[in-house]
């Protein structure tokens, strides 16, 4: 069977509106988005043509507006949990490009000591509760953090990021139900990039409206936002954060977006129409849209834009050099941070102090 993705309406995107966004922050948002793009775009050759990054990684080029808009709406102590496509969240949450890149390379200087890789990034000191490879689990991790935050009265709000593919798994709705029932400070952030591996959402769900509309039945506020507009994402998440912090419970936000690259590095493309890829890359791209809006508002000029791109290239080159020149983890410390090992496969687990 030849899968043919449906042709969306290729509408010109609306202009970005700055209402409700803290003045003076947008150039930093743009610089972060450009840095994430440079970081993500650099990964393909590193993971396909050599031994630099073992295994493939899932790039999020095109989805920067969701990560930056959402995470800039949070307070520093708030929690973010990611799925298998995590680098944009980790970098927006404050992990350094060096610590993420070194982790992808499996180096001891990485944020997980080089033993986790792309799907086990984390930095608890920054409220980044990590990536993981089980589709849908990131929302459960954020749910657990939200339950802890409520019990401990920490004031933290917890964001679980997941794709529209994860929204087709039962666990997602169990988490949503539990959060709504117990009015937990959770934001369920569905990044609808429209494809789960090679399958278009239109071929995987009989949706007449949006994924957010499904959440209606669970008794929590839900809406779809334009994920290519970081200001719209910011406003939605900021409002949800306010509600969660006031004890009014969770919110479901679906951010409509698109990934520029294949599902993972090394993928053989061919299941998405060229016209669709061009639309989301050339017309409805979050970096183009935000920079155009800032230039139109007189808050940015071409020279400063180019300087941000040049700075991002330098930061990413430095991160690659850092990873390349870092050592691999010492095998003698292989059990550090491991919660349990079974020295005899037939014997009991021996619990270690982490
Ligand atoms: C429980 C589980 N089922 C299946 C997979 C295989 N798998 C990895 S990514 C993926 C697609 C996920 O799509 P989506 O949630 O939309 O995220 P996206 O890749 O689009 O960011 C699948 C099915 C998995 N990792 N975990």
Describe this structure in a few short sentences.
39% of the residues lie in helices and 10% in strands. By secondary structure, it is an alpha/beta fold.
Describe this structure in words.
- With 354 residues, this protein is α/β, with parallel strands linked by helices.
- 39% of the residues lie in helices and 10% in strands.
- It is built from twelve helices and nine strands.
- It has helices at residues 26-41, 43-48, 64-71, 87-92, 97-104, 137-152, 170-181, 211-215, 230-245, 274-283, 286-296, 302-324, and strands at residues 79-81, 158-163, 186-192, 195-196, 199-200, 222-226, 251-256, 340-341, 350-351.
- The chain has a five-stranded parallel beta sheet, with helices on both faces.
- Helix 1 (26-41) packs across helix 3 and helix 3 packs parallel to helix 9 (230-245).
- The relative contact order is 0.18.
- The model is unreliable at 1-7 (pLDDT under 50).
- Bound molecules: thiamine diphosphate.
